[in-house]
Amino acid sequence: MFESAQLPRGRWAGLYSQWRPTLQYCMQTEVHVYALAIAASVLLSFFPFMIVMVSLARYVLHWSLAVDTIYLALDDFFPGELGDFIKRNLRATVDLRGPFQFTSVFLLLFTANGIFEPLEVALNRAWGVVVNRSYLRNQLVSLGLIFVCGSLALASFGLTALNRQWLAGSWGPWLEQWGWNFGNWMILAMFKAAAIPLSILALFLVYWLLPNRRIPARLVLPYAILVGLALEALKYFNLLTWTLLDNKLRHEYGPFRISVTILLWSFIAAMMLLAGAEWSARSGRARETAAPGIETH
């Protein structure tokens, strides 16, 4: 009886011993600097990214359902008045600019590259890599990751739009009986079913390719899955606390609360990403010590 009572306590102690170095890592000043730099770059690249995605779907693919899916995804990230404000201004901007604009692509590439510079430095420090890539090599790797991550995001929108077409064609009359709110809930569920695996894949590629060394895929895949699921849980936490947070930011920041909201949640997401990177690197270094032979480059 005494042993059974001690078992849960032993498990909690084991989990704490695994997470304690990660918590200590997250309390370091330089980690906060990395996360803030990443969040600032996300803020700068967010609107150009959305313009490029909507313009591609509307003017290049001529796919209205994919455009509607992008706006539906915005509701998943930004509820209520904030989401309406972003969608209204995004529609107005895309309508005003007209056909696909390469200046938006250039601005996106310029601002999004800023995400991967501090992220590479942070991942190199986590893996014990002393020498960072040169600026040119970092830009080339970042450019590749931008195209891959952007393609994955567009693929998630496209898959949801295809499912939406099938849903409307096969189950449209049935959904009309249940109400379109239920139909929108099903479409959102389809978006999540497509987006979560692709988000995990994007995280895996960042963890695997961005550090300036060779890393076996098996060392980072489990942590990419954990961080991807944790980021999805963060969205639900945002939905639960949204009213309280929005009222607070409205009182403190007024019209700037939208930028502050994006910056704040991007900072939290960046801290979670860096925590997963530290955990995977610590576990990877322990395995390398037991079985050396992985080279750096």
Give structural notes:
With 297 residues, this protein is mostly helical. It has a domain at 30-149 and 199-280. 87% of the residues lie in helices and 0% in strands. The protein contains 9 helices and no strands. The chain has helices spanning 2-26, 29-60, 64-77, 80-97, 102-126, 135-178, 180-209, 217-253, 257-290. Helix 2 packs across helix 9 (257-290). It is globular.
- Got a strand count? 0
Profile the largest sheet: none
Poorly predicted sequence stretches spanning 5 or more consecutive residues: 1-7, 178-182
The number of distinct helices, counting runs of at least 4 residues, comes to: 9
Amount of beta strand: under 5%
Question: What does the secondary structure layout of this molecule look like, with pairings?
Answer:
Elements: H1 2-26, H2 29-60, H3 64-77, H4 80-97, H5 102-126, H6 135-178, H7 180-209, H8 217-253, H9 257-290
